[in-house]
Each structure stands twice: as structure tokens, then as C-alpha cells.
Amino acid sequence: MTIKEIAKLANVSLGTVDRVIHKRGKVSKKTEEKILAIIEKVNYQPNIYARGLVLNKSYTIVALVPSFIEGEYWEMPSKGIKMAEKNLSQFGVNLNILYFDQNSVPSFNEKVDELLKLKPDGVILAPVINFEAVKLTKKLESGKIPFSLIDSNIPNSKALSFIGQDAFQSGKLAAKLLCSEINSQGTISIISIKNNENHNKTLQQRIEGFKDYIYNSNFIANITLIENNIHLGTANWEENLMQACTPTNNTVGIFVPSSMIHHVAKCIEANFDTMSNIKLVGNDLIANNVKYLKKGVINYLIGQRPENQGYLALESFYKHLVLGKSVPQKKYLPLDIITQENLMYYNDDVV
């Protein structure tokens, strides 16, 4: 079905149909409803190639994400964004990735200045430095620049979309898995391993979800929860981690709400004679975590499909800017439960 055929069915001009499809210009409500009904009935899809040629339009999208060392978590969203660019560049979608040091507010703000000078048509933002990220979203809103959030959400930010996991539910799932391994009794250590003092809302929501599951269980009387914060920048962090792994002689489970569980697994492996009974649940399918999952030191990893987060974030701008379609404000990705037994089925496929 072509625009010309739709115009004929609606008994209107080609220009009127075009204005309705692309939401520009004035059309009476009655005529608009008539045209939209025909479009829905015939399942009309615009010819994107033709539209791109006619409009001769390109869009610059800037992604502002943490820098990484090969094998770290943020390599995966970046990979997904680049894969989307490869597939969408033919439609005039151009990508510029700016990397900042997630442990440095000045680094983030320096890249924000670069971003604003580029005057992008859209922004993909990983708001890991929460307060500074909120300030950036205010600037983007003021400049009427749409933005999508990945990994962590900022409530009431007016983002075009958020793409990531439901962190609270992820925490509840982690608690259920760990409690099933320890027969719902004993001491559980929640260990937050950090490189900085920046508040990470996603990690906090996972911890809250974990606690919520325990607090609302019928075996709460049999569980002791102990929380520990390990700062990798301190001189004695390894000693502190050792103590956090065994806060009591009854420690039977450890939950790490980030991708840093490999540090705990390394400690457990080094002291396996005395810690072999401790069950571990953590997050993210990065190389260092996979190593210990294969060995059986880590019992469960909860995946959040970070490559897909990056891919779908750029794709949301393709739909919004090129297709003129609305996109979901929230796109929660599945919570993958990964074990030794199903690890082989997870690979690098994106979307």
C-alpha cells in the first residue's frame, strides 16, 4: 500500500496524508482520524529508504558511557551500541561515543562539555555518577535534546526511554537463589565492592530487593544479614574482604550486587579448605566472573544483557527520529539465571 493509494481511499490529497503520517502541518481532526484508520487497517509501513533520500537528513547521537579495560562490564554496552550503529548508519544515524572515568566527577563533566558542543540530536547516557547525570539531564531537557538511559534509571527525568533490568526484582531473585542453596538458614554477607564513593542507585536497589525477599519470608528468624562495603582504593582492601567473607563462623552465603563478585570468588578459592561451603551469587557475565562460574566457586550469575541495552538504546533513536514512532518509556530486559550447566548457551549475540 502506497501513500497515493491511501490518499485515494481517504479522498484527500497526497500532501494531507503526508502531513498526518509525519505529524506536521494542520489537518482537521475528522480527516486525521479517517486517514489513521485506513493506515491501521492496511498496516502501512513507510518506505524509510525513500524518506531518507527525500529528506536528505542525518542524525548525530552521542553516547556518554564509562571507559573500560577489556573484559570489564562496560565493554558490553559499548559493543551493543557500535553494533547498532553498523546496522543503522544507512538510515542517517551517526554515532559518537564519549568515554569518561566513572571514578572521576571532573572526567564526567569534561565529557559533558564536549557532548554539548556537538549539539547532538540525541544522547545515550549511563548515569553511574548519579548526581552529575541528573544535572546533565536537566540541561538536555532545557535544550530539547532527547536522551535514553541505560543500566540505571533516573526517575522523573523525562527520558525518551530507559533500557535495563528491574534492579529491585534482580535483588529478590538473587535472594531466592541463594536461600535455595543454603536451605534458608545461616549468615548471609552482602558485600558491596566499590572503586569510589559515588552513589549507584542500581546497586542499592538490588540490595533493597534482596532484603525485601528475606524480610517477607517465613524463615527470616533463621537468617542473619551482615552488610560490608569494600573500597578497592584502600591499602588493606584484601584483608577487609577476607573479613567480610567470614564475618561469623556461620557464614553460608554471599551476595555481591555488582559485577565485582570475582574478587570474592578469588578469596574463597584461596581459602577453599575453610570456605568451601559458602555459596556465591552475583551479577554479570564478564570474563572474570565466568572463570569462577566454570570452576563452581560462583553458584549463580544474574545477567542483564548489557549488549542489548546498548543496541536498543541507539535503535530507540532510529525509531523516534527516523521513523517518527513512539518508543516505550521503560524497556526491562529479562533477568537471566546463569549456571555452570547453561553457561555454554550464552554467547556474544546481540539482539
TrEMBL record:
InterPro entries: HTH_LacI, Lambda_DNA-bd_dom_sf, Peripla_BP_I, SBP_2_dom. Residues 1-55 form the HTH lacI-type domain. One of its GO terms (molecular function) is DNA binding. The keyword Coiled coil does not apply. It comes from the Bacteria. Keywords: DNA-binding, Transcription, Transcription regulation. This is LacI family DNA-binding transcriptional regulator.
